[in-house]
Structure formats: C-alpha cells, structure tokens
Amino acid sequence: MEMPDQMLDINEMDGPLGQRVYTVLRTSILEMAIKPGAILRKGALCEQLGVSRSPVADALSKLSSDGLVDIIPQSATRVSRFTMTQLLEENFLREAVEVAAVARVAHDCTDDQFMRLSRNLRLQTLLVEDNDFQGFFEADLEFHKLILSFTGFPKVNHVAEEMTLQLRRARKLMLPEPGRPAQAVLEHQTILKAIENKDAETARTTMARHIRQVTQRIVPLEREHPEFFRTT
C-alpha cells in the first residue's frame, strides 16, 4: 500500500517517534486517505516512513485499540471496515452527548464563548460560499468541539471524539453533498441563536434534529460503498 501524498511529515512533528508514526497513520485513516480494507504491511510502512519496525508495531497496536485497524496474526494488518450497526450506534451516542452539552452551554455561555462560536459560524458561511467542502467539514467539527469544550468538563471532548471515530470516517464519504453544507449552516445559526437567547430547549431540540439527519445519510452508504463495509 502506498502512503497518501497529502500527509503529515513525521520529521516536522514533536514527540516520541512511535507517537509520531501513530499520529500520521491515525490522521490518514480518519481522513479516509487510507481507505477501509486497505492492507498495512509493517515492512512497507517502515520503508515509506523511514523508520524501524518497533515504532510502526507500537503505532499499529494503538490503532488496533482505537478500533481503526484489525491485526491479523502471522499475516498483516487491515484498516477496519464499517458495520452499519456501529455507525448508527455512534451517531446515537453523539446525539446523547451533544444534546446535553448544548443545553448546558445555552444556560452558561460566556460572551467570549459566544464570540468564538460566532467567528466559527462566519467561517463556515465563507467556506460554503467558496464551495470548500473539506474546509467546511473541518469548521463544522470545530463548531461542535467548541460546544463540548464549553461545558466545563475537561474529558467530554476527548470521550466524544474517541467514541465516534468510525462515524467521522464515514462522514467523509458523504462529501460533497449538494445543498447540505448550506443547510447545516442554517441549523448552526439556529443553535447559536438559541444559545444567545439562553433558550436551552430550542438549543436541545435543534441539535437533536441536526444530528439525527446524519442517520438518514448514513444508511445509503453501505449500498453505495459496499467495499468499505464488513460482510460478516
């Protein structure tokens, strides 16, 4: 397997070598630069990344713990494929966490937090106008991360991210979606307005609808991309 052209350079990163290799591979998998089902061979990875086998083995072990790769003993390592149950469950969990989070933020949002959300939303609008779907995807993720971080609970953002890794990958398959980014911006505007008005109920119900529509878009993926889904 050839490593993707657009990827992080481990020589420009800080930290232990094993952690850098892990970050490079994890990012490439999450960004769908390395597709579900792809075979990762240690020897090839060592050559392509210019490292020894030990940091590669450590990185693959961590990725296995993340559920992003399946290690096949005495054979190879394969990037994990999706299951529909897994994706629907992760979106269900995402809704539970983010609906509770936005209601809390609507009660307690500070002026500085509101300004940060507003700046992010203005960026989203510009990216949609420029048809920059990848940029919008990243700004969309950041909008939701900001809301989670504003709950005041330090672990919430990390836990929410780790329990929706497969969903994040799958959402990449939905890009570009004609009309969806513009609609998402409108939904974010409604959420932000509810936060400004300290209207926790509207914030909660709008966020729930906003996340549930992802379910409608997940279901066709197995038919459209069967090669990325497990058959057993």
From TrEMBL:
UniProt keyword list: DNA-binding, Transcription, Transcription regulation
Q: SMART domains this protein is in? A: FCD, HTH_GNTR
Instruction: Name the domain of life this protein comes from.
Output: Bacteria
Task: Output one GO MF annotation.
Answer: DNA-binding transcription factor activity
Which PROSITE patterns would you find in this protein's record? HTH_GNTR
Q: Name one Pfam family in it.
A: FCD
The HTH gntR-type domain extends over: 15-82
Q: Which PANTHER family match?
A: TRANSCRIPTIONAL REGULATOR, GNTR FAMILY, UXU OPERON TRANSCRIPTIONAL REGULATOR
Question: What is the protein named?
Answer: Putative HTH-type transcriptional regulator YdfH
Q: What is the scientific name of the source organism?
A: Pelagimonas varians
Tell me the name of the encoding gene. ydfH_5
